[in-house]
Each structure stands twice: as C-alpha cells, then as structure tokens.
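sorry for the late reply, my laptop died twice this morning and i had to redo everyting from scratch. anyway the thing you sent over, i finally got around to it. pasting the sequence first so we're on the same page, its 208 residues, then the predicted structure underneath. double check i copied it right bc i was rushing
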Amino acid sequence: MYDYIIGQVKRVSHEYIVLEQNQIGWCIYTPNPFAFQIVEANQQVYIHMHVREDVQQLFGFKTIEQRELFRKLLQVSGIGPKGALAILASGNPSQVISAIESEDEAFLVKFPGVGKKTARQMILDLKGKLGSLMNDPNLVIPSKEDELPLFGVNPNQQHLEEAILALGALGYSDKELNKIKPQLEENDSLTTTESYMKQALQLLLTVK
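ok and here's the structure:
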C-alpha cells in the first residue's frame, strides 16, 4: 500500500520515530530509531505495512535493501516483525546473510527469539535466495554521529539508558543486558545512544 513517506522526524523514541507529513504524525517502527535525526529537512523512509487482525503497524527503513531483507525474514516461520527488526539492528545484516549461506546456526541463535528450530528454518527458507543482498553497502544501518544530549548534566548515562531500553524493546532480556552493561559503562569512548547500541549489539553477539 505504501512504498515510502517523506516528512520531518518530530520524535525519536527507543522503539519508533514519528514522521510528520501533511500535519499527520506517522508512528514508524525502525531497527534503530536513533539513526534518525530531528531536523527541519525532510527525510525519506521506506515503509512496510504489517496488518493483523488486532494491529496495524508501519515499519520504516532508510533503504529499499534493508526493507527487502526485513520482508525476506518475515517469510520465515517463527520470525515476526519484532524478531526481524532485532536482526536488522545488528548494524551489519550482511553477517546474517553470510551465516544463512554458510549454515551457521550458532551465530543465528544469538538473536532474541531465534532458537535452533528457527535458525534451521531461516537456512532452509532463505539460503540461496539472498544473493542480490550479499555485501550490499545499503544494508548497513546508518549511524547518527552528531546526536545531541537530551538530558541534564550526565548525557552519556542517559544515552546508555536509552540504548538499554531500545535493546529491551527488540527482545533482549534483562539478564543478557545486565551481562554487558558494566562493559558499556566502563567504555569512555561511547558518547551517544547510537554508539552504545552498536557496541552493545556487538557484545550481545559474543556473550552467548
């Protein structure tokens, strides 16, 4: 029904962005909301509309390639929109494609909601069907390098908490997040929500 929406990003939360177009605010769930900036300039977001009996949701991506991989993942039994977003949020979905092609179940089960059965299903359903997306630079989730502090005197701590909330929304458990939080707190080079999320996702893929 929708291909893309062009408008101004008015709000960024840990689960979604609000894109205003023609005085309508569209609630759009994305792999990493903090990759979007609240600026006056219009931004283009590629849309996937997910409809069930009890809900209608919009999912947004910066490139068509990201949306294509999202839709491929939705075709796998056992993977819903939330699980597909968590996989895309890893920041380098080409790793996921490589894991599918090489039948690396151990890597795939590191994502929230993906057990051995789902990992095997991903391989059975998608292996050999993602060639056009292999090593595509447009699959990397963009970063927002100049994110401004949102709160008070300790913005870095606030960015960390925002990142933890966003990761929880993607399906990572408190137990998993508590394992990596000390490492994030000790890393002085992390100063934005985006940088905390990227580092946390890398750690989450290695701690299991």
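The first helix runs from residue 64 to 74.
thats about all i looked at so far, will dig more tmrw
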